[in-house]
Amino acid sequence: MGVPGFAFYVIVGVAFEELLFRGYLITRLRQAGQSLTFAIVVSSLLFSLGHIYQGWLSIIVTFCLGGVMGASFIKFRSLLPVYAAHLAHDLFLMYGYMARHS
To answer: Do residues 18 and 83 touch, judged by C-beta distance below 8 A?
Structure first.
């Protein structure tokens, strides 16, 4: 997969993750009467487990980033800033990976 295809994959993947883990899961857990902390922790845990193939360090880092993104979603009441931050993060990582492996 070339850079344009990989970039498209990142853009779509980030949108899916944000819609699912922040937009849907946190919102539904809150509607079901769960505490804000519980909703963010569960969302972050499931988000981080989706990155298990990257190893334990990545799971821990992703869990922490998921918590920050979950709290940001609550604070801003919007997925747009969370999506933008997540996308910038992933594109930065993609650029670093491509630079090292070209």
So the answer is: yes
